[in-house]
Specification:
This protein is α/β, with parallel strands linked by helices and 898 residues long. The chain has an 8-stranded mixed sheet, sandwiched between helices. Strands 9-8-11-10-12-13-14 form a 7-stranded mixed sheet, sandwiched between helices. Strands 21, 26, 27, 28, 29, 30 and 31 form a 7-stranded antiparallel sheet that branches. Strand 29 and strand 30 form a beta hairpin. Helix 5 packs across helix 10, helix 6 runs parallel beside helix 7 and helix 13 packs parallel to helix 14. The chain is globular. This is Bifunctional acetate--CoA ligase family protein/GNAT family N-acetyltransferase. It comes from Shewanella submarina. One of its GO terms (molecular function) is ligase activity.
Length: 898
Amino acid sequence: MSQRTLAPLFNPASVAIIGASSNPRRAGYVVIRNLIANGFSGPIMPVTPKYQAVMGILAYPAIESLPIKPDIAVICTRASRVPGIVETLAQFGCKAAIVMASGMAEAKTEDGTSALNAAFEHANRYGMRLLGPNSLGMMVPPIGLNASLAHTNALSGKIAFVSQSAALCTTVLDWANNKGIGFSAFVSLGDAADIDFDELIDYLGRDIHTRAILLYIDSIKDSRRFLSAARAASRHKPIIVVKSGRSQEGRHAAERHTGGVIGSDSVYEAAFRRAGMLRVQDLTELFAAVETLAHSTPIKGERLAVLSNGGGPAVLAVDEVITRGGKIGPLSEETRAKLDQVLPSIWSGQNPVDIIGDADADRYGKALDILLDANELDAVLVLHSPSALGDSDRIADSVIAVAEKHKQGRMLNILTTWSGEDAAYSARKRFNAAGIPTYRTPEGAAGAFMHMVEFSRNQKLLQEVPESVSDTLYPSTDNVHAQLNRAIEDGRLQLETHEAAALLSTYGINTIGTEFAATPEQAVQAANNLGYPVALKIQSPDLIHKSDVHGVSLNLTSDDDVIQAAGAMMRRVQLQVPGARVEGMLVQKMALTAGAQELRVAVIHDPVFGPAICLGEGGSEWDPTRDAAVALPPLNMALARYMVIQALKTQKLRDRRLPLGLNMQAICLLLTRLSHLIIDCPQIATLDLNPVLAAGESITVLDINLRLHSQPVDNAQRLAIMPYPKELEERASLKDGQSVTLRPILPEDEPSHHEFDSSLTAEDRYKRYFGVRAPMTHDEMAVLTQIDYAREMAFIATSKQPDGTEKTLGAVRATIDPDNTDAEFAMAVRSDHQGLGIGRLLLEKLIRYYRQNGTEAISGYTMFENRNMASLAKSLGFKVTFDMEEQLIYMHMPLTEN
């Protein structure tokens, strides 16, 4: 849907209230009251046949009698009437409507259609947008719009809040007003039948009035659109998420609440991290995050200093920071010497800085002034506990004065905790008014600081350059697909180790030698083929855990051992599980486990986000969403490394310090290869590798359980994050006969792209960037190379060098609006390779891509000096016009037929 169609919701010139009422207990009364009370300056038009006027405003008996077309309408009627009202509004020319009625999915129209479907069909037919149903409404405080059922108005500010829960909206609103925190937008999604999180995140991410976005989520409908929008917005603005349904009972409650599909909480957590968002666990943390976002600047580092008039609160703050993986900054000799001059001789000389319980405003101010000047620190937490010897308000004023003094210099983030209630209330109000974050407890303040740290870390993850890996990660998949499709045709939807080993081997994943045996005699033959010692494992689709029937025998060293173990195993199964189907046995070469650690790696299918990769240590009661670190494919080496670090940090994986130990590189390579396997093979539903032996650089899979989908899967939408589109790679020849590869850009291309950018002459750089500019920073280059293929594209031309590396010869990229209307391109060709046709090849490829993508047009600008670019564009069919005032050439080409 179009971002342009959301504009009326956020900046309406007029509002109609359908079902307006003079009854204070009716929604139609509350909405008009709120619109008037908040000072909305446009026409407010009540629609009701019952009253001539509502709250002194002339009412209209029907929509058709309105004097102007309303930009938005607020529908305050019962559910069964909504479809007809939506159709009439849409025909009348209304652009958007807020639907407050609940129960629309259950309500029926005269022909038996659900009221929800009927209303959406009417709106969609005329290009009208719907917010809701079951919405509390929305507020845009900067323009005085309060089209909601809220009990109070929101203050104007820089934070946008979007929630699926109306009750949470009013709770957050009440708290924020008490704190003096304002909002740029306050939106209750309701059931989100039309407008959903992804579109709102896209809109708010581009909104100049919004500095940060808060979300309350019960469920997500379109995971790819959500993650694409969130990733794009979170590069520029913090996005804080509260997600319900952490427990199984909570998930069921959330499902009943929204009617949406509720996936695994740990997969949601992985998705939020992947998109650069910050998740908080509850309302207390949400309020702390809002407090921080409203008043803080982005942190420049993680080193915190704690300044306190009591040791206990300081220790509590330090414990919270360290427990959550934060850092307490050590004080330099210079800083300690300065503090010695203003603090009593009995102070600790360390961080946290205990300035002693009788500290007055002067001592607080001088100590804080020194800490804010310390180059070894990035933030300061100021704590104060009530004391008869120190005036709480005067100390607060001193802190505020020092903070104001440092605004012009190297500004460190300042957080405060004034403990207590009556004794601290006035001081906290002072901090709110001064724009300094303040919290009731040391733990709350420390947690808020860690929110900032975690968000900063998530941003760095988005910009981390992955290690380049071998081309063998991209194998030929024809044989793999043939094997999987044959299995599905034969009705074999579960493949065990001996059947799946070759598939994993294609992707460079090592498995232990395994053969299937239907009889004890065949097991002996298999053991001789593999070489003793071997392991014997019962094979039955009816036995979930082989160990329950002693269905595993290890270290068999002779033919007699195999015969005896096989016979005993068969008899035990017949006795303990008489009806179990025994297909035979797996015979495996015994793995050398000395010095190795057992891991478990699985791929599960989440109903919201699709395939997810899990890493842990396993066990018979293993729950991958509880006992493992989770990540979404596609993974590269950098993302895999982050996943392993998360597993170690959360104790889902423990480094047992065995002789060979865990090798980060080897585990990351396994995860990356597994990711490619899952991306390439949509037939795979789930995959369980257990155990996996990790012995230094050697990673060996012992057991495989692979389950297949019985029906074809829509591969285009299967993954929540669109993977590298390898199918867009192609070979081409330049005018001099040189062979080049045209392909989408990869995150791994950052080093070569730096070299390419540096290779451009000063004149070419001037033409490319419309002026003189410094070399690209890492952050800027990360944006260019780590793209979201679902909504942007960049193609590069590369040539293979004698040492096997790739050299970038040219690049073309296009940014596109979420409406998919216009792709604006930019291009550069290596200065020493111009005139060989690289630019034409790249631009032709980009045109083909966006034409196939359904984009309406492609356009670009270039400088007057760059006539070669204009000539190339004209030869390809672009309309070229000259802007004499701006000294620019504009190139435009429609891609779709009208």
